[in-house]
Specification:
Rossmann fold; 20% strand; 393 residues; 9-stranded mixed sheet; elongated; 2 domains; alpha/beta
Length: 393
């Protein structure tokens, strides 16, 4: 099939959805599909480069406790129509279909089979609560719906009830498994690692409070902080005013260095406070064999298993976070169990496996539409044969 992956977030800027789109693109091509990525521009990117098609300008704005993107263009309708007429996609796969405005315009103009993947999870959403009526017509244009976790399914089903197939995010398990530790941090001092945005829902200040408790308890350890964001100044001030030693602000790092840092970690810590739909960073940590301490929140429970790959603690509880980290540092038998179990668990989320599930779901939706005589006019490929095993869906 000819497939278009539609991302309202600017590709290939860093982010969970854009990373998902990247690996799905690569692995769908390996499975024989002809694939394009439809996204926006943000800065000076060219309108088209290889298989990446850019429409409109993306602007960052606060969303779900983090930063999202709104994409606009004065010529959206004509641009979208021209692209769809030229490319003649059999199937369009929308990632966060209701993020304005790129996805909405493409979905409205599509004559292809339309699949939507929902990545987000949160509490009450005023945008969806008050916009669900206006978006109902767009939702009805989706022939299939995917959620990346049970948490994401629960969240979106509240506003747009329907049948959702849960297909998780993936991880490049082999690449993480090949990474080697950074010699710079291999001096016998245990390394506690955090990777993420410095924002309230990621819990970085809770981690600093926990680290302060660890130092008070006389446990020698180093805290490596990767990332940046709106709370960075507050985090640095916390470290300076309390004269915390052993905290290293590493800023943003390359993908290769991030892999090495995961391999360097004696404990990977994810103290998120909530509104996480999945926890890709936990997959990365497991794939690299890093023992994990994470918040006991809904979005993480489908990724790591308590006592098998991670210790789970209540969110916003620095003392319990500190106790769990200290336990992993002192109990080398438990840490070794997590190091061995993490890569095995992560392999279940390898991108070839995840992409096979997505591809099977595409085929299921196409067969269902064909059987009902409802294939849209833009679908020109052959209808995939039925599997020999149990049905999909």
């Amino acid at each position: 099939m000819k497939i278009g992956l539609v991302s309202p977030y600017v590709y290939p800027l860093p982010g969970g959805v854009t990373q998902h789109v990247r690996f799905l693109y690569e692995n769908l091509r390996l499975r024989g599909h002809d694939v394009r990525i439809i996204t926006s521009s943000h800065g000076l990117q060219r309108s088209s480069e290889g298989d990446v098609i850019r429409l409109g300008k993306g602007f960052s704005m606060p969303s779900n406790g983090s930063m999202g993107t709104v994409t606009i263009s004065p010529r959206y309708i004509s641009q979208v129509r021209a692209v769809l007429e030229r490319e003649r996609f059999d199937l369009l796969h929308f990632h966060e279909p209701f993020v304005p405005f790129l996805s909405l315009v493409v979905l409205r103009e599509s004559t292809s089979v339309n699949i939507g993947t929902f990545h987000a999870y949160g509490g009450w959403s005023p945008a969806y609560e008050f916009g669900s009526r206006a978006l109902r017509g767009y939702a009805e244009r989706l022939h299939g719906r995917i959620a990346v976790s049970a948490a994401a399914r629960h969240f979106i089903d509240r506003y747009f009830p329907g049948d959702y197939k849960v297909i998780p995010n993936g991880v490049d398990a082999e690449r993480y498994g090949r990474a080697v530790p950074l010699a710079r941090w291999q001096d016998g001092t245990p390394n506690i690692l955090f990777v993420g945005r410095f924002e309230p829902r990621k819990g970085v200040l809770d981690l600093l409070k926990a680290y302060r408790q660890i130092r008070r308890d006389g446990v020698g350890a180093r805290l490596l902080l990767v990332g940046g964001g709106p709370q960075e100044r507050e985090a640095r001030r916390y470290v300076a005013t309390r004269r915390l030693r052993g905290v290293e602000f590493l800023g943003r790092v390359s993908d290769d260095e991030k892999l090495q840092l995961f391999r360097t970690a004696d404990v990977y810590c994810s103290p998120a406070t909530g509104r996480e739909s999945f926890g890709i960073v936990l997959l990365e940590a497991m794939a690299a064999g890093a023992p994990i301490v994470a918040s006991d929140i809904h979005g993480y429970k489908g990724v790591v298993r308590r006592g098998r790959e991670a210790l789970l603690v209540p969110p916003r509880e620095p003392k319990e976070l500190a106790a769990a980290i200290e336990r992993l540092i002192s109990d080398q038998t438990l840490a070794a169990t997590f190091r061995a179990g993490g890569p095995v668990r992560a392999a279940e989320f390898s991108w070839p496996r995840v992409t096979a599930k997505v591809d099977d779901y595409y085929s299921f939706v196409v067969r269902r539409l064909a059987a009902a005589g409802q294939l849209p006019p833009g679908f020109r490929a052959e209808v995939p044969p039925s599997p020999r095993g149990p049905g999909q869906g």
